[in-house]
Amino acid sequence: MLDYQIYTLPNGIRVVHKQVLHTKIAHSGFVMDIGSRDELPEEQGLAHFWEHMAFKGTQKRKSFYILNRLEAVGGELNAYTTKEKICFYSSVLDKHFEKSFELLTDITFNSIFPEREIEKERGVILEEMSMYLDTPEEAVVDEFDAVVFEGHALGNNILGTKESVSGFQKQDFLNFISRNLSTDALVFCSVSNLPFGKVVKLAEKYLSDIPSIKKQRERVPFTGYQPKTVTLEKPISQAHCVIGCPAYALADDRRIPFFMLNNLLGGPGMNSRLNLAVREKHGLVYTIDSNYATYIDTGLLTIYFGTEKKQLKRTTALVLKELKKLREIPLGSLQLHTAKEQLMGQLAMAEESNMGLMMMLGKSILDQDRVESLNEIFDKIKSITASDLADIANDVLREENLSILNYVPS
């Protein structure tokens, strides 16, 4: 059972903590309900740029002192940006937990965005873009978002564009934060051997002076999906393909059954249907997998593979054949039992990662105002029927509902 405790400060910031007695490492971070989908059209890439700039100077620290403070005691300081979240987090020995808490608070709330640092980091991000564009297996998956979510902020690349990143100035960051930061949509999450009372005491010490900020922000829901097939020539040696479509939103009751269906189709297990059919049986790919991402108003299924250009059509046909099997052939009782056991085992092992658990706590509190225990999730998985999976496959995986993006060698 997931056993966590939660405390809400007067300013609305929530603190969620899980005590794990057998560890000496304290993982903690701020998770904010702000992401790239909250950018205005001219702000593409600004959320990710803010993630970088948080380490570049605060009201009391220059960049070197931010980067060195935890590294000097063997800790780690990092951040990430997604379509709907920004997270600043750290991992340190438990005796340095207060030091990391204070530093995370400083970079989250007191960044000053020095103009000189903006110019330097602009170059870093442009290089990050170039590196990403030289990695077609990543670029094709991200560009698929633009195919499915065309005309919507969910389709924009988190890194932004070279034009947008080249133009950002200090006031752009301040405006973005002012418009989006809300203390009741921000969580401090931690997993360590420290007692909850100690974490709360430090939260009151470092977070109580932050003023209450309440923003009524409405995210524009995605509508109007139109399936399409796009083929682009690239200076690459292998063809890369993504097949997929919108799927169920975070709060949809069909989310967990579809997650299990995706796991059966192309999850991390080497016994996934796509891996067995395309790699093991025909030897057409090195990697083939499927992924299901959820958002507050929609979801996204993506199936990725890379193959020889001359095998692209054949490989695509094999993938569509596996999808057709899921639509037309219900799982037998043994297949259904195996799929459930595999997913439950994978979820249990994922919870063994204290860092991943810490981030999941923060995200779950923001998205659902609670954290489901493994037992609750297991009960939902156990109740799934073969009929449920067939209905979902026929709802989402219809061939006429799929979009395809191909990168082919020029």
Automatic annotation (TrEMBL):
GO function term, MF aspect, one: metal ion binding
Matches recorded under Gene3D superfamilies: Metalloenzyme, LuxS/M16 peptidase-like
Peptidase M16 C-terminal domain residues: 168-343
Domain Peptidase M16 N-terminal: 15-162
InterPro entries associated with the record: Metalloenz_LuxS/M16, MPP/UQCRC_Complex, Pept_M16_N, Peptidase_M16_C
Superkingdom, natural source: Bacteria
Family affiliation: Belongs to the peptidase M16 family.
Database matches in PANTHER family: METALLOPROTEASE (PTHR11851), MITOCHONDRIAL-PROCESSING PEPTIDASE SUBUNIT ALPHA (PTHR11851:SF49)
Name this protein carries in UniProt: Putative Zn-dependent peptidase
Organism: Pontibacter mucosus
